[in-house]
Amino acid sequence: MDYTGLLAHFPPERERSLKAIKRYSMFEVMYYRPDVWLHSQRVAWIVDSLWPAIKDVFPKFDRSKARHLALVHDDAEMETGDIQAGHKAVMSSWRLAQVAKNEEKAIVKLAKKYPFRIGDHSYRRLLLDSLNKRSLESQVVSYADKVDAFCESLHEVLAGNMLFIEPIMFYTGMFARFDRKFPRLKPLLGNRHSVFANTGSRVDSWNIKTSYYAAFGRSHTARTLRKPTNFPVYNRWRELTFRYLGSKEAIAVLAHQQER
User: Fold this and answer.
1) Is residue 17 in some structural domain?
2) Number of structural domains, the chain?
3) pLDDT tens string 4-56
4) Is the pLDDT confidence value at 91 over 70?
5) How many CB atoms lie within 10 A of CB 136?
6) Measured between alpha carbons, how far is 12 from 20 in angstroms, rounded to an integer?
7) 199 falls within a domain
8) Rg (CA), the chain
9) What range does the domain containing 107 cover?
């Protein structure tokens, strides 16, 4: 699946704008800081990887809509900038309402600027759905968005960046109560047969071995990226990066340390 091809009607400036938005600005140092362009693609990959579990419990789920939602879910940040989940978690209700209003204004502006339709979907409606999260598809995308953030944080901690212990704890708590925020997702979350739906799974919870963490605290390399860790969700996340980007680009993304 060529995910970028789904947005072929957009001008190149959109890609440039999303690549210019770096994630986790609240963190002083991030060794492998991703941009919103890559993040949006990874969310789409995760949604597709969830598909076997999704179709078993949500037979009317619109897979095409979910793919497109994933790819544009952060487009409003081209106007608003990156507003992080950690910041939102401590905002007042009034401040959160202001953030939502600003995003609505951004959506109106983007909908006038970019193509009216993406495949069979209205670009404006996709952005509004991403903001309001009323559809099942947008809620699954929201979950996949958190899975990607969790794995990005694990990637940092395993390389020795202990600043990212905080987001790991934050997202672990968020997963534990996600079905309270979105009750419709309860049949999907915790599915034992889906790595991404069961984020808390471990390779061997009864026998924790030193070898699982032999590379802990060291920069990622082409060699260490191929070695399994004790976190299946993270292993799968790396595999998807290699599958869709190819070995050379995946290593550049996952092993090129940008900051110290």
Assistant:
1) yes
2) 1
3) 788 888 999 999 999 999 999 989 999 999 999 999 999 999 999 999 999 99
4) no
5) 19
6) 13
7) yes
8) 18
9) 4-255
Q: Where are the beta strands (DSSP E) in the chain?
A: 117-118, 121-122
Instruction: Report the CATH number that the domain containing residue 74 is assigned in CATH.
Output: 1.10.3210.10
CA distance 119 to 55: 22
Rounded Cα distance between 164 and 151, Å, is 11
pLDDT digits (tens, 9 = 90+) for 101-129: 888 888 999 999 998 889 889 999 999 99
Q: Which residue has the tokens 């739906």?
A: 197
Q: Quick check: is 260 in a domain?
A: no
Q: Which residue's structure tokens are 């963190």? A: 27
Residue 218 lies in a domain: yes
Q: And the tokens for 76?
A: 């409003």
Please state, in angstroms and rounded to a whole number, the distance separating the CA atoms of residues 240 and 232.
12
Classify burial at 125, counting beta carbons within 10 Å of its beta carbon; exposed 0-12, middle 13-18, buried 19 or more.
middle
